[in-house]
Automatic annotation (TrEMBL):
Gene Ontology molecular-function annotations: kinase activity; phosphotransferase activity, alcohol group as acceptor
GO terms of biological process kind: carbohydrate metabolic process
InterPro entries per the UniProt record, alphabetical: ATPase_NBD, Carb_kinase_FGGY, FGGY_C, FGGY_N, FGGY_RbtK-like
Keywords: Kinase, Transferase
Keyword Cell division among UniProt keywords: no
Ranges of residues in domain Carbohydrate kinase FGGY N-terminal: 11-267
Pfam families: FGGY_C (PF02782), FGGY_N (PF00370)
Organism classification: Eukaryota, Metazoa, Chordata, Craniata, Vertebrata
Gene: FGGY
Highest rank taxon of the organism: Eukaryota
Protein name: FGGY carbohydrate kinase domain-containing protein
Signal in keyword set: no
Length: 564
């Protein structure tokens, strides 16, 4: 009987390529992560703001982790494979061989990472056109999107790369091509990072006005003229070569992919909430926002009709949930409190930057190690010790942080903004470190409130947050988000929600579910619910008022200095 029950279970493989590691999970039809594995990948930083990777290195890591998670499993039970990845740019020639994205001619380094900011001048010129397509990215294109990177390649590597290039892939699409041999692109990547629109496709006038008319002439073959919805089956499934490399049977269904944050949203936002007394119960999924908290944070909200939110990316039709419009807010400077995957040495790990840069950090390390705790668990406990009769959050009544250490992505779309700390004293001890840690977490949550208010002012109706990612493991981070936004926070039962989201894609491609919505409801599971303490509302309303004043003052003093 045990053997019969085992063979009836259906499994799906989710593969997630993060900034510095690749992870894979074997997930069953009920959304349970049976096993998972992780493999680091290389990052090169040849000069400031230039971050590069190798598509060969990334694919090799995909093969290593996939073989690990499917080892010992009956291949007949594995029904589908789904990929998600960072929105990095992969360049290959007409024979699909890697092309260098650097002046050193290192062909193995053929990926410009998502966080690469080499194309600042190019994106400024693109935004200066005020083309109508920019309305779909909140009015201002980000340097992390693909058009400015393509323009940089044309202007700086014309002979060595631009003219030799056969295909430009978003990394999630490169992975589905590698698995199937089909160059089809995902609607998710093209609408979110390349300016494709689901109703009109490519806009010739945009590419011509920014100086990339070459792409129009070949009918967009290099960047994608065959588009699939996320979760749709690609080609005939795994090729013999890819199947051998991944340790899977030939022909297994491969899904059109997602960007990693969108996979996280898919893994949590559609979960069945019945019986938890949440305001989103018996409400459409449009009442929810998925907050994916990692190196950066992404705020994913969906709507039945297009909603244009100034400073928030989108609306993108069917980019995450088929049939619904997606808006995506974001914070580029949240950092990780709990490392669930390896991260690059880059300037956006803001909370770690604040904590590790403090003079009391060695003392914190020593005491945390002596108590066999992580430094953040120790800091949370230390805050409980020093709060006395006050609620923990009230300790920062005179300490305030503006969190944009790496510029503001949403809703101000200002890369030039800097971080601010107001209320420093001469204290240099552990108490002071704990307080600035708390104030920084609160600032990130206040930034989330800022984004949510912009979305609500434009027409979204949001009553519940769904959190996943490394930061969601920190109870202080979660409680501050509940208290500061005034909304309940739902945590996924499976911490690895991004991997569950990738597996949901594979499940849909296999045909085992009639729709992504059905798979989301069955495979997305609720864990803990954290509710706001409404008695603290007045305090956090005042903190938010100060928060908004900080950016006003920063802009004011910058204006003064420019005029001097």
């Amino acid at each position: 009987m045990h053997s019969k029950k085992q063979t009836s279970v259906k499994y799906y493989v989710g593969i997630d390529v993060g900034s510095a590691s690749v992870r894979a999970a074997l997930v069953d039809e009920f959304g349970t992560v049976v096993t998972h594995a992780e493999q680091p990948i290389q990052i090169w930083e040849p000069q400031p703001d230039h971050y590069e990777q190798s598509s060969a290195d990334i694919w090799a890591a995909c093969c290593v982790v996939t073989k690990k998670v499917v080892c010992g499993v009956d291949a007949r039970q594995i029904r589908g494979v789904g990929f998600d990845a960072t929105c990095s740019l992969v360049v290959v020639d007409k024979q699909f061989q890697p092309l260098a994205v650097n002046s050193q001619g290192q062909n193995n380094r053929n990926v410009i990472m998502w966080m690469d900011h080499r194309a600042v001048s190019q994106v400024d010129r693109i935004n200066a056109t005020q083309h109508r397509i920019l309305n779909y990215v909140g009015g201002v294109m980000s340097v992390e999107m693909q058009p400015p990177k393509l323009l940089w390649i044309k202007e700086n590597l014309r002979e060595s790369c631009w003219e030799k290039a056969g295909y430009f892939f978003d990394l999630p699409d490169f992975l589905s091509w590698k698995a199937t041999g089909v160059t089809a692109r995902s609607l998710c990547t093209l609408v979110c990072k390349w300016t494709y629109t689901s109703d009109g496709g490519w806009d010739d006038s945009f590419w011509k006005i920014i100086g990339l008319e070459d792409l129009v002439k070949d009918k967009y073959e290099k960047i994608g003229n065959h588009v699939l919805s996320p979760g749709e089956s690609v080609g005939k499934g795994l090729t013999p070569e890819a199947a051998k490399e991944l340790g899977l049977p030939e022909g297994i269904a491969v899904a059109a992919s997602l960007i990693d944050a969108h996979a996280g949203g898919l893994g949590v936002i559609g979960a069945d909430v019945r019986g938890h007394n949440l305001p989103c119960e018996n409400q459409p999924v449009t009442s929810r926002v998925a907050l994916i908290c990692g190196t950066s944070s992404c705020h994913m909200g969906v709507s039945e009709t297009p909603i244009f939110v100034p400073g928030v990316w989108g609306p993108y039709f069917s980019a995450m949930v088929p049939g619904l419009w997606l808006n995506e807010g974001g914070q580029s400077a949240t950092g990780k409190l709990v490392k669930t995957r390896l991260e690059p040495k880059c300037p956006i790990l803001q909370i770690e930057h604040v904590v590790q840069g403090h003079v009391a950090f060695p003392e914190l390390q020593s005491k945390a190690a002596a108590s066999a705790q992580s430094i953040y668990t120790y800091l949370n406990s230390h805050l409980d010790l020093i709060k006395k009769s006050l609620p923990v959050g009230f300790l920062t009544v005179d300490l305030h942080v503006w969190p944009d250490f790496h510029g503001n992505r949403s809703p101000l779309t200002d890369l030039t903004l800097k971080g601010m700390v107001v209320g420093l004293t001469l204290s240099r001890g552990l108490d002071e470190l704990a307080l600035i840690y708390l104030a920084t977490i609160q600032a990130v949550a206040l930034g989330t409130r800022h984004i949510l208010e912009a979305m609500e002012a434009a027409g979204h109706h949001i009553n519940t947050l769904f959190l996943c990612g490394g930061l969601s493991k920190n109870p202080l981070f979660v409680q501050m988000h509940a208290d500061i936004t005034g909304k309940p926070v739902v945590l996924s039962k499976e911490v690895e929600s991004v991997l569950v989201g990738a597996a949901i894609l594979g499940a849909c491609a296999s045909g085992d579910f009639a729709s992504i919505q059905e798979a989301m409801a069955k495979m997305g599971k609720i864990g803990q619910v954290v509710r706001p303490n409404h008695e603290h509302k007045r305090f956090y309303d005042k903190k938010y008022e100060v928060f908004l004043k900080l950016v006003e003052h920063q802009r004011e003093y910058r204006s003064i200095m420019k005029s001097s």
